[in-house]
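USER:
Working in pairs, take the chain set out below, taking as long as you need, and write a paragraph about the fold.
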Amino acid sequence: MSASGQDRAKSTRPVVLDRAGLEGLIAALAAEGREVIGPVRRDGAIVHEPISGVDDLPRGWVDEQSGGQYRLRREGEALFGITHGPQGWKRILHPPKETLWSVETGAAPKITAPPPDDTRRAFLGVRPCDLAAIAIQDKVFLDGPFRDPRYGSRRENLFLVAVNCTRSAATCFCTSMGTRPEAGAGYDIVLTELEGETFLASSGSVAGQDILAALPTRPADDMHLASAEAGIERAADQQRHLDIDGLPDLLKSNPDHPRWDEVASRCLNCANCTMVCPTCFCTTLDEVSTLDGTGAAREQRWASCFTTEFSHVHGGAVRPGARARYRQWMTHKLATWVDQFDTLGCTGCGRCISWCPVGIDITQEAAMIRGEGGER
């Protein structure tokens, strides 16, 4: 991991990149043999796909998000005016489905495992909430006695270009989670978009420092710094709030709170919240055979605690209804995750609010259990 802290660069004064410099950054990463992946507008949403230059970015588009609603509209000329779409970077680092091993039948059955994915990649446009989500998944997949080698290989070959937020969606609450719209650590390069196709740029690793040194830049002055700071503070001021003070203990001590019944009356058990969440990591295994019976494979795919089969054991599901499933998801995310990984499992991206078909709002649910009116 180039920005894991092992090769962190010394702090240097930020520089300014223009459009040509950003184009040069993309070209420099590609010249290193990296697949550069960035935000792209497709099918009415922002998704993460390979890009070859600045023209592939969603210039002049912003997103409007609220409970159960998401749409794009034209506004201004910013390249990174959007916050984020339904996809987290998890889709690439921890794919929705992958083959663990396959077997060919016959007189001498042969079992093979696919080689590690050692593709060199660069993520461009990683928001601070998603940067924090990658750090959380690092804890899940790389720390402790059971390291995931597939995730580890992808992570080891990754270069991260973060982009600070100067605008928040109505569903964002990363400031409440201690993430803020400003990237703190874990990046190779961080950009803040200013006016006039200019970017404040800083390095967070030796690799990032080397890339920036080779690009056409100019020193940042106090006006650039003040503009970036004002944009970040504006984004922070636009956010909703989630009070996390004592929240883990509050949720764990209220398994029978009447609010769980109220939310269950609305929850569709569709699992959208877990699919768009950048930190959810649960999986299940499928045994898949070929149609002609000459082979089989074991596949890992994403799973969700909102499905019946997720907690199914002999005799039935441990969590048979929406009340128990939503309580499990929210309590894990905001309470028992701390017991497992010493951090909350939420970074305040707000995707679960936007992509819930009925607009269930995790910040309001927490406030109601606390005994407050909640905010929308």
